[in-house]
Amino acid sequence: MKNIVILGATGSIGDSTLDIISRFPGQFRILGLTAKSRDAKLEKLIERHAPKVVALADLKAAAALKKRIGNKRVKVLAGEAGLVEVAGLAEADLVISAIVGAAGLLPTLSAIQAGKTVALANKEPLVMAGEIIQREAKLKGVSILPIDSEHSAVFQALHGERHEDIKRMILTASGGPLLRHSDIEKRKVTRKEALAHPNWKMGPKISIDSATLMNKGLEIIEARWLFDLPPDKIDVVIHPQSIIHSMVEFVDRSVIAQLGLPDMRTPISYVLHYPKRAPLDLPSLDLATVGTLTFEKPDLKAFPLLNTAYETLKSGGTLPAVLNAANEEAVAAFLNAQIGFTEIEAVIHQTLEAHSPQSADTLEAVIEADEWARMEGKRWIRHYARC
Ligand code: NAD
Ligand code: MG
């Protein structure tokens, strides 16, 4: 029995993780679950999976849940401190890090510092604080197993290979729902259009990141820290069918790709059973039905944030943390109908421009940069909202 903690249990990755776990009765025990504020959904998960401890980031939601169910069946914790406690539970064997955004940074670090194997979907903490997270993981001898489909593909392609034999990795990107939109069309894009990813069903923030291609930018930075490769060894190719999840080219020019239908349950099952594989009753990839796999160069003029992320990674320091925080604020503002779609990139670029980068080797420096970027980003959001 593996004891599992799921951070961000009420989200899209949380749902898929619980789906996989329920297919293997007797193999996994749900020890802890966390969420932001959806106490009613968390209550249903408590009934179904009987965790020992849960935490809600939102204090009011935690109080409401505690009032309804008491502390008998399950311990209910509240706030960031509660999340950090669940992430570091002594009995946990595997922590699924599936919170969205910077809110996952301290809980993910808490799991690593407690010496837990971490299965990582929550890419934003690695973007902000990759150096610190990898340093702590090394110190504690902790493995970080990727859930993100591209990184899972690379991780699988690297199985049994030597790091020095890697020539480069090639991350695939679907191009998102706006791949063929003109600049003028993008200016008028609605939330519904931007959220409608052609191949994947995901939470709102990553869906918008896929529409701007910022998601691929964040994934370049994620890959840099997960696989310890310099930016010039990380390439991106547009592959609208999302069948090849990513590839690795080796020094002898051999390329290993990982393929499958786009379904996050496969990479999630992989980390749950790692290093084994378990049979999953899901549809098989039928290449004859798919018919054609196509590839194209990303259009950096149409999707400038991909290049911005790349440049930010190359410059390093606190810039990636600023990029991430400005993006989170801009995406939230777009989803709240405060700014238009193309203003997401404007807010990010203005915020990066105004930043004086520092070294990002302490948590304080990263958090300070994150807080500064949110203030600066909000200033630009107010500016564009008035225009
Ligand atoms: P989601 O919005 O569906 O779920 C997010 C989860 O995080 C929820 O449980 C929510 O309660 C929790 N949460 C949100 N804000 C929080 C806060 N301030 N404090 C504590 N908890 C908070 O998101 P998702 O699509 O499941 O994505 C989760 C992470 O996984 C993201 O980093 C995303 O980039 C990554 N990811 C998702 C997919 C996917 O298919 N959904 C694929 C690859 C990577
Ligand atoms: Mg991905």
Care to describe what's here?
The chain is of the alpha/beta class and 387 residues long. It has a domain of 145 residues: 3-Layer(aba) Sandwich (Rossmann fold), CATH 3.40.50. It has a 7-stranded parallel beta sheet, with helices on both faces. Helix 3 links the parallel strand 3 and strand 4. The termini are far apart.
Question: Topology, please?
Answer:
Elements: E1 2-7, H1 12-22, E2 28-35, H2 39-49, E3 53-56, H3 59-69, E4 75-78, H4 79-87, E5 94-97, H5 105-113, E6 117-120, H6 124-140, E7 144-146, H7 149-157, E8 166-173, H8 183-187, H9 191-195, H10 204-212, H11 214-227, E9 234-238, E10 244-250, E11 255-259, H12 265-273, H13 287-290, H14 304-315, H15 319-335, H16 342-354, H17 363-386
Parallel strand pairs: 1-2, 1-5, 2-3, 3-4, 5-6, 6-7, 8-9
Antiparallel strand pairs: 8-10, 10-11
Helix pairs in contact: 1-12, 4-5, 5-6, 6-11, 6-15, 10-15, 11-14, 15-16, 15-17, 16-17
Task: Provide a short characterization of the protein structure.
The protein is α/β, with parallel strands linked by helices and 387 residues long. Helix content is 49%, strand content 15%. The longest helix is centred in the C-terminal third of the chain and has 24 residues, at 363-386.
Strand arrangement across the biggest beta sheet: 4-3-2-1-5-6-7
Taking the sheet with the most strands, its summary is: 7 strands, parallel
> Beta-sheet strand percentage?
5-15%
**What would CATH call the class of the domain at 2-146?**
Alpha Beta
What order do the SSEs take from the amino end to the carboxyl end, as H and E? Answer: EHEHEHEHEHEHEHEHHHHEEEHHHHHH
Query: What small molecules does the structure contain?
Result: nicotinamide-adenine-dinucleotide, magnesium ion
Report the CATH topology name of the domain at 2-146.
Rossmann fold
Query: From the 3D coordinates, which CATH architecture of the domain at 2-146 would you assign?
Result: 3-Layer(aba) Sandwich
| C-alpha end-to-end distance | 57 Å
Name the helicity range: 40-55%
CATH superfamily of the domain at 2-146: NAD(P)-binding Rossmann-like Domain
Strand elements, count = 11
Average pLDDT, rounded to a whole number, is: 97
Structural category? alpha/beta
Radius of gyration over all CA atoms, rounded:
20 Å
Individual helix count = 17
